[in-house]
Predict the structure.
Amino acid sequence: MELFVRFAQGNMPLFLSPFGKEDAVFVFNRTPNSNSTFEIDFQAMPFVSIANRWTSLHGQAIALDEVKHHWPNNTKLKSNNTTSTPQDTYESYVAKSVNTLKEGGHLKKIVAARKVSIHAVHPSAKVFQALCEQYPNANVFAWWNGDSCWMGASPELLLETIKRSSGEVMYSTDALAGTQVASANNNLSRPWTAKEVEEHQLVTDGIVQDLTTYGATQIAPSPLTNKRAGHLLHRFQSISFQTEKSEGILECLHPTAALCGLPRKDAKQWIVDHEGQARDFYGGYFALRHHNAYYAWVNLRSAEFFDNSAVLHVGAGLTKDSSPMEEWLETKEKTQTMLKVLHS
């Protein structure tokens, strides 16, 4: 198992700050080597949760231009024959989901995902470096899961241990939903639609409710803002909180409402029953732990690489006001995160 991570600008885990600079790439291996300087716990969780123990990894910090010297070029990857989700299949799935949401039952939001297969591409150091250069505000990662490799640039944190200026240790998670293409000067290109406003509010309210049920205290959403992720903008709030039960907080937050829907349990079951293609680790998370400090990001804007192909995973949040065509176009924009670097 090998893991490369370049953390989002200004968002390096506090427990790694003694070992590398803000722009460093952290390389983790199961087996220590002569350059290993620290040890952390790691967990990779798929969209549908499994009993998954923490794994001890040994790490070191390197410069971005040194990545190619550490990249595992001899790893043998399996072949894959996954095909892209046809537009009519995806739009039919969206329409079916929206009709269920319009019935006014317990489901309020469903996230509909699809796959895009790209041939003759490899998980190279060049692709990783390009992701780092083009997406400074994302957690850029590459993780070898035996005979495949997940790589992406995630704009969404699932859990972070933070320290206030007072010295108080707290926790934080992201509420990220609603998508539009940024203008030429990286501002909003249009007002947010009622559907996008509702979609984000559902995510924020859902997280607050889950944390309250869990027993968290001092729950405080930040002021609403827009977060840039490449050429896209999202409605965004961070939500800080306190808890005495840190060991169970990942299970409380996963799967995030931004990648699943609401209520989460019912939305997840709808996805499993109707999406037609297993998400595997897409919509899951990657987590680092050092003592009681955590840093976990959601696996999105990513692709799983195989022997001579990659499968991109993209999704769109649906409410009762969603349009199948508009959601297809939104997912098409989200594929650009990976396609831009794969075709460069």
